[in-house]
Input
Amino acid sequence: MEPSRNHDADNAPSDDEALLDPSEAAEIIPDDTDHPMDSDDNDDPPPDGAQEQEEIQLQNDSLAHFDHHTNSIFCITNHPLIPTVVATGGGDDTTYIFSADIPSPVLPPSYESSPSTSRSSIQPIAKLTGHTDSINALAYTLPHGAYLLTGGLDGQLRVHSTTDTSYPLLTSTQEVPEINFLAPTSHPSHPNTFALGASDGSVWVYTIDPLSDPANPLQVLQAYYLHTEACTAGAWTPDGKLLATVSEDGSLYVWDPFGEAATAGITPPSSSLGSQALVGLTAADQRFAVEDGLFSIAIAPSGAFAAVGGAHGMIRVVGLPRLGTAPSTSTSVTKSLKGSGAAGKPKGGRQIGGPISTGGSTPGSSSAGQAGAILASLQAQTESIETLSFSSEHSSLLAAGSVDGSVSLFDTAHRFGLRRHIKEAHEGYAVVKVAFGSVRSSSAAAGVASQAASGR
Output
């Protein structure tokens, strides 16, 4: 008997029969590897929490440079009437004055077809010496820039007359260990008057009047001693009547150096125990407290509130008293080294804010308003806020520069909302100065330290 067979296998075509003969193919498609589609790289949504990074191209369109300092530059200021006259001070214990009045080219250097690779430095108008340590603060007095003030880490305050291009020394004094800031007031009745903040926490208000006393042209109007650690920054209200200062102890005080608030009926709160501070907030108030201190301050163009910046990117916005525009009838000014506030020097931080009596203030002219009220608490940056600046009265921006190298813009007209955070504005360097220019825009210009800083 013949063995059984698999009929399906018999009927299946052979391997050679299953293949298509090349001559029978209508088209031969070449082998190709798989390529990703264009959308594979561009259309995928970013991970949760990630933001697209905006790349900013920077161009060096400077007209000239000044390089006579032999060490880091710590402070720069402009003459109030001749902004092209610039004074700089630095770690070489020297102050230079030079003119930046240089003809502008038709196009900036970045547009030139063959830009010059080397330019000579601007030559100084004057070179001022006499300090034995770094120049830490510079200021021209107001309103006419009659004097240039230099303050150093040696504690010296030196006053130079600007009537001669050699900037001769008028007088000098040394009352404090180190000078942290110099701030001239714009008060029309008190020309050539300024405030000084020191490393020992003291605040001084001086006036320069060589006509009244040629032998002692630099006179002390007030001295305050409520800060318990270094007084790091200070600012006058736009009308030049009130002075606000901050300290490493985390305190903010608003002073009435000329007695105009008292004349208007705005007096210190009863809890201040006789001090002359119209507003006082310290780290004892947990709503205001900033751990590790405050380092910067700016006052809004309206004078209605101040922003103070401190460690860990913290910013507090505090209401200020409002004084009328009518000139004060009080002409008496206490001229003593002690000054108001000396007797009330506290042993530790304490909160003296709260309601301020308006007394007999004229309705509509002067008011305590929201003085001492904490209007906002902001934090967009991670390290110390070294500098603050408000835009012009016709805008509503607050710029903050931080040790982390970033710049933040807040909108004061919309609950201080964060308008923009430029995280890598000066990557690797501390932002030590922000200021709004005169150009009609909402941009902020920032300056950086010459060396990287990791914080205070």
User: Anything to note?
Assistant: Residues 399 and 409 are 5 Å apart (CA to CA).
